[in-house]
Amino acid sequence: xxxxxxxxxxxxxxxxxxxxxxxxxxxxxxxxxxxxxxxxxxxxxxxxxxxxxxxxxxxxxxxxxxxxxxxxxxxxxxxxxxxxxxxxxxxxxxxxxxxxxxxxxxxxxxxxxxxxxx
Length: 118
Description:
With 118 residues, this protein is mostly helical. The chain is built from five helices and no strands.
């Protein structure tokens, strides 16, 4: 029951955000979604922070529909079916957007690190 209520609230939030951002350039403040582990050393914290910043920059480069799916999947840990319900898209569409978005992120991060993975 809680899952359905959560999906309902997230659907309202996504629709409200989509309506708001139709007029303005979307900005996602991923800083508020950060996970901090106090057991890490200072060097590990710096490395983790840089990696998080690189991922945030890469996510902001994605088209809105891919950004939305990736944030819902990895930051809110929702399942594909839940994301499909929230975004009013089919399950195959959500899977495709997720796969394409992850490939773009991988390319962006490989370029950022100076690699040539793809």
